[in-house]
Specification:
The protein is an alpha/beta fold. 38% of the residues lie in helices and 16% in strands. It has a domain at 2-160 and 197-224 and 264-279 and 302-312: NAD(P)-binding Rossmann-like Domain (Rossmann fold), CATH 3.40.50.720.
Length: 325
Amino acid sequence: MKILVSGANGFIGTNLTSYLKGKGHLITRVDLRAGDCVGDIADENFVLETLARQDFDSIVHLAAIVDVRACIEDPYSCYRINSFGTLNMLELAVRKRAHRFIYSSSANVYGVPVKNPVEETTQFNPRTPYDHSKVLSESMIQSYGRHKALPFVILRSWKLFGEHDVPTTAVSRFVSACLKGEPIQLYNAGRDTTDPYHVENYCLAVEMCLEKEEAVGEVFNVGTGKEVSIRQLAELVKKLSNSDCELIDMPPRALEEAQPMRSYPSIEKIRSNLGYEPVVSLEEGLRRVIKYQALSNFKRKPVDTTKKGTGCGSHQGRTVRKAKS
């Protein structure tokens, strides 16, 4: 299968493109600063002209501004990229008669869930511009599915972690602190709960959605279906890294956070419809990240920022030409 992946240089994109290549798929990597095609998905000309000339039959749309605080500070940019950019990608998919359009949504559409475990039919409760941008995008995708017969799949993911993650996420911070022997600060005493799971499980879910016709037109929660508190997560990282670092209880960062947020998914739908089962356990995933961060000595490969402007070089895993300035 020939697959175009937007946001290919991000945490999920880096892992997903590697995973799909390992399964024999041909990948066209799209990102803002480096990739086979370099450009802004909110730029209509880039998407509907430049990307339209590429050879692919499916799209996995990951590209987005995912920093919730940045989205709060600049909602215009959030909606421009996350929602209008998605609209461009939807139109591209229709014009190219895509076999599949897979959208990376988020558990954030549920906000503070009205019930747990969260099912796909649970009421939306978005709070931030990021949350709303995902709700808007999902609505547009449903419309394109209904009015343009686009074969789409929407994946609502819980707390992903893994190799190549940014250093500011909970697992990355906890592992870094344990390896350095530094204390771990737990806001609101780490009482919030989520479903943390390794990114390889998400890659498997994407692969199934690309290949199985039963996925078309569906929305799936993705995770493991298990509830883990932030304190439990920190304690497990500490145990697996053989660290004696101190866990420090901190007050909530805002009054709204004083009441612990509980959120974990039901994955019965993706399990029954597609046969999905997580392949990497929480402990195994954390061991991988601990090993990765220890070996890399906390250094990450920098993004090639010499690529400016827009355009596509040689794609599908081969050497990329420098985009013209």
